[in-house]
Write a structure and sequence with these properties.
The complex is a heterodimer of chains A (315) and B (437). Chain A is α/β, with parallel strands linked by helices and 315 residues long. Chain A has 10 helices and 14 strands. Classes of the chains: A alpha/beta (315), B alpha/beta (437).
Chain lengths: 315, 437
Amino acid sequence: MQAFLSVKEVTKKYANHLAINNLSLQVPKNSIYGLLGPNGAGKTSLIRIINQITAPDTGEVFFDEQALRPEHISRIGYLPEERGLYKKMKVGEQALYLAQLKGMSKTVARQKLQYWFEKFSIENWWNRKVEELSKGMQQKIQFIVTILHQPELLIFDEPFSGFDPINVNLLKSEILKLRDQGATIIFSTHNMASVEELCDNIALINNGNKILEGKMSEIRENHRTNTFECEIKNPVTNFETHIHSLPFSVKSFERKPNEQLSLTIAANESDSGNDLLRQLLPLGEITAFRELLPSMNEIFISHVSGSALNTLSHE
Amino acid sequence: MNKTLLILKREYLTRVKKTSFIVMTILGPLLMAALMIVPIVLATMDSVGKKSIAIIDETNWFLGKFEDTDNMTFQYIFVSVDSAQKAVLEGSYDILLYVPQPALNIPANAEIYSNRQVPMTTVSYIRNTMSREVETKKLLASGIDPAVIKSAKATINLVTFRLDETGESKKSYTAVNVVLGLVTSIMIYFFIFIFGSQVMRGVIEEKTSRIVEVIVSSVRPFQLMMGKITGIALVGLTQFSLWVVLTAGIYGAFMLIYNPGEMAQAQIGASTMMQQANPATEGLDQAAVSQVFEVIEAINFKVIIGSFLFYFLGGYLLYGALFAAIGSAVDNEADTQQFMLPVSLPLILGLVISNFIVNNPDGSLAFWLSIIPLTSPVVMMVRIPFGVPYGELILSMSLLIAGFIFTTWFAGKIYRTGILMYGKKVSYKEVWKWLKY
């Protein structure tokens, strides 16, 4: 797929701290791209370079196949992690001001704001001062202001922080809608569950280096650890001895109510699901059997801490 | 619309709409006008506060020597001090003057009793009358006619002229120039601090409310900084011009109500109230008033107002950028102190030294401080009423322009890094590093 934004060998140094080290990324057009990494990995530095808040020391960024220029600013929408509004200013006035700074005309901005305020049912906030609103309410306004000028590239840095679950769902559906309407979205967060839910592609960076990039489905497939889960109803009485004699290791088993037994199996590389099933059949009535793919959380932790994936949990 | 202009507009409008701005804009001229009008009004209100003064003179030296004035009536009484004091308490007289029988035949002491605060003018009138009387008596005792002494007193009206390059000579009035120079320089000092710290607070507000990152994703940090600085400069100019217009308006309206003839009289009244008891100046009142008008005509208002505006703007832009840099480097106002001191030191120094420069406005200290951009806005204003050669003025002004271009560039570098640094206590070393990013 065509890359809408590509970062080429970008390096950024702050005094004696290397924030980004020769980093390259390809953000495919019309997709949601998860930018992941621990605190201080260089995500914000990279996002600021894309927003032209700072310039890279070396390397280049291409926006829609053109070298990044100031004119591109009006085609980018950025919701920073550290965000706020002027507390003493009225909501509507402030939203108009921020929209005009993005290059919109006052009349167009007013029309679009009306549409979004109605959509989020916050029309009656227009003349209220920002300081009268709750944090979640302020975040809603910030979200609207970010997407108002219909940017082709949207960058959300921890967009869900400060929202209640209902509003998180509202936002998620809006973000997916924006992608379906053609926007390319960079999504930076520590919330791996929302990454799995939303992202098409991800990149994982640590200490300024990219350590992983690709389609999320492929990445999870590549990280499979041959771990399976099996549930058995009415197991045979001496199942424990059976388990020890199996040609693969059972990492854990758990007796559940109603004579249910739950097994977690670490299979050998060569074992297929069918092989395992055949071996398990004598143990009782099999009610569930599935492969456990690692969660993004586990992939994240394993790559960042460098430790192997030795425990898996239910998805 | 240009984005810097948008920012400027917001900065300007939010400040001008604030209640504190409106209150200050109205209060300022009221205070200024009050300063000009109150003395005149007081001087014309002669009937108010007329004091009746009873005199017990055991020496009999001063019988008939106290003459009634607009504010005081004198009455000689011949009762005991005790009963006179009672009369004062009962309100028969306002003040009791008691001159006791002196030990050495010449009165040297007197006592004043009153149930209220005795006005300074009354006290000095009494003292002057008594000492004049004693002096006269002593002169007569030595065989000297007091009239001879009076006619021998001389008052020199010294007028200084200043020769300028065109060969013309102008009357110069040192006292007026001193006041004018100091007042304008103090005003510039305060304006720079008031509006400079507004810039600083604005930057801190944007930083602590975290709106700054939203804005710098739309505009360059330098545009944000310049929009803010120029917006607040316009607020300052608006306030200043409103002050001038309103002050002039209030003063003008007052002048219409009190007709000009009365005004001149009132002014004489005001000055005589101060000098009443000093016979040497009595005849000069009329001359003094006409001299005041002459002085006002001699002041080159065009040059003074022009350079005031220039040095206010130049000084504000120079320091405003530095204040913006300070605001960007800290997380809250309490942390600004370590950076405020070195930045405000030259300004404070300029103001303190101005008091000395006034005595020697053409000295080398005055010259250098009025050329160096960090002190020139404050110091040059002290020198301007005395006349500054155009060459020096141009040099000082161009250096100030160069100075604020430099500080703006310098501050811009600190600002663009500082505004995005949160939750970090910043040291000078750290700021030095930002300059090199």
